[in-house]
Amino acid sequence: YSQRYRPEQKYNSFQQSNFVRDTPQVPQSSASCPDKNGRYPSRTCDGYIECNDGIAEEKVCPDGLLFNPAAGVFAFPCQYPIDVDCSGREQTQPPQPTDDCPHQFGYYRLGDAQNCGQFKNCVDGRAYTFDCPEGLAFNGDTYRCDWPDQVSTCDAEAYLGFSCPPDARQYGLGQEEYRFFRSPADCQRYFICIDSRPRLYNCGEGKAFNDLTNTCDGIENVTGCAQPQYQEEFRAAPTKLPTNSRFNG
Fold this sequence. Notes:
The chain is mainly β and 249 residues long. 10% of the residues lie in helices and 29% in strands. The protein has a three-stranded antiparallel beta sheet, with no helix packed on it. It has a three-stranded antiparallel beta sheet with strand order 6-7-8, with no helix packed on it.
């Protein structure tokens, strides 16, 4: 199943209305209109020409966003860099950084190669921090949370705290078989090694990884993996026979 996560904060009507309001506008210039109405690329990747009834107006996207000629007529024309092809018009306006953000808008990784699970979304120069789901890392090439071994800027082994043994992959009859490994730190979690790179899974509440069957099992069925709270409750409970016991005097 897919473990990928797409940030939900990419666009909404409130942000778009602010973008339109705040987009810098350049007074009517010598730019020409190919058609009476429409938006057209300018010399820079974050600039564009908007034509209304044949009157051309040069505009500039908010810092960190780029003009996408492929955007539909009802879509906001300024979009994130991964969605825009800037071939032939690579120049952009100077960045407008803040203490929190390198640009006014955008998605950016937090941490280093050993701490890859956080990212920030910058809106109007203000940063909002997000955590990827457990075991996933932020991929700056796609703006998604992805398997760490699929993220070039992430050291999957250091991030997950696990390295696959040399024999982590075996070959079966006509197809590759991948071995499973219970997490040394938590029996409710386990790793699958794919191409000798680890991926972390969680069995979920009340379950643990049974390395005899290579599946998630009831935690009571996994040797050495009794839940601590159950152990404490058992030790604290008074020992007494039920009132209907045949041994009760």
